[in-house]
């Protein structure tokens, strides 16, 4: 016997579960959160989901090889979609809604991080000022010292001010991560609809709502090989 396909509602719910971490990755990318913060939030969400998830009852049957392969594709696509979304969300927003602006480097901030083994990592964040004297919301961060004070830079700025600015060259390079993210979303949806998730529990032979008929003893059956004895009626003279 093979495992049955989960109902459609369960497959749609599985799609929502696997796409939920993507929302956290997109929010972290747009709001410029560190990667470890996004990973920590996803871990907390998984712990909460595991705690409130109802316990499954019933025996599960083995899935066919195709559904096991779809389950592997489902898990892999979920991980890849989170990574790709974290790298592509902010740049995609700037690519769609960003307006070109010419700004000047006003001042620079250095963020020094010391890792284990003595390795030092320095992030340079440049604060920009428009040509009309207004500030560009957010900062332009780099791993190395690429700009100097007073240098003119062409950037794409978000009109709402929620997304940090970025240069057009960096925004143009988002095509690869955006394509990987979209393909991962499609694989999650297709794999879940084709039954790549957990196997549905085996249906009981008798539904729990069905009432069993009242038991009545059956008549005794004759044993095999036994003969019934009959009495002959004799007349008295």
TrEMBL record:
Report residue spans for region: Disordered: 199-237
Task: Spell out the Basic residues composition-biased ranges.
Answer: 224-237
Alphabetically list the UniProt keywords.
Membrane, Transmembrane, Transmembrane helix
| Transmembrane region(s) | 12-30, 36-52, 72-89, 175-195
Write out the coiled-coil annotation as residue ranges.
none
Q: What is this protein called?
A: DUF3592 domain-containing protein
Species: Actinoplanes subglobosus
């Amino acid at each position: 016997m093979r495992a049955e396909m989960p109902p459609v509602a369960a497959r749609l719910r599985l799609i929502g579960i696997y796409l939920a971490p993507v929302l956290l990755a997109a929010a972290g990318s747009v709001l410029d959160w560190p990667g470890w913060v996004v990973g920590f939030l996803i871990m907390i969400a998984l712990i909460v989901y595991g705690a409130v998830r109802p316990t499954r009852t019933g025996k599960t049957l083995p899935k066919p090889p195709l559904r096991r392969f779809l389950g592997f594709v489902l898990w892999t696509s979920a991980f890849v979609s989170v990574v790709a979304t974290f790298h592509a969300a902010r740049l995609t927003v700037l690519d769609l809604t960003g307006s070109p602006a010419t700004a000047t480097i006003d001042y620079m901030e250095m963020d020094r991080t010391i890792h284990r083994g003595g390795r030092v990592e320095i992030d340079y964040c440049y604060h920009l000022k428009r040509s009309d004297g207004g500030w560009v919301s957010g900062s332009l961060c780099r791993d190395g010292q690429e700009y100097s004070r007073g240098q003119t830079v062409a950037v794409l700025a978000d009109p709402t001010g929620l997304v940090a600015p970025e240069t057009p060259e960096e925004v143009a390079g988002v095509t690869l991560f955006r394509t990987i993210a979209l393909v991962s979303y499609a694989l999650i949806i297709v794999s879940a609809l084709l039954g790549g998730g957990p196997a549905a529990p085996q249906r009981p032979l008798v539904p729990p709502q069905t009432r069993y008929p009242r038991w009545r003893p059956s008549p005794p059956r004759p044993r095999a090989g036994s003969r019934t004895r009959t009495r002959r009626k004799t007349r008295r003279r």
